[in-house]
Every structure is written in C-alpha cells, then in structure tokens.
Predict the structure.
Amino acid sequence: MGIFVKDKDSEVRKFVKTHGLTFPVGLDDEMKIANAYKFVGTPFTVIVSKAGEVTDRRTGPQSEKALRDKIEKLLK
C-alpha cells in the first residue's frame, strides 16, 4: 500500500498513472499515518508483519529485491 503525504489528489492520480502502480494508495493530508509510523522523509518504507508489528523502517529508495526478500521472510 502506498500513502501519499500532503499531496494533492490530482498529483497522486497522475503519479499512479505515470508509474503504472497496481497497489492501493491513499492520502494522508493531516499526517496521522505518517506520524504514527515516525515518518522522516520520502520515500519512506515501513514493513508491517501479519501480527501488525513494524519490522522495518527505511528512508530513501529501496530495491524491489530487497523489499521482496524482507516481505517473503515475514510471510513464511
């Protein structure tokens, strides 16, 4: 899931279309989600386990392989 922080709906829609995103996205205009996960800048990645525990937080770009490896480990 992707959360856009303080972005305009029209900008988000354009980004989603341009990059062909196929996962759900949402807006966080009031930074409630960002603050809950201790957001520090974009891009910011949070990986949450099935149990709802934050297992990883990363600022900056992440490779698809690195993310896939972390997520697949949690799904076992």
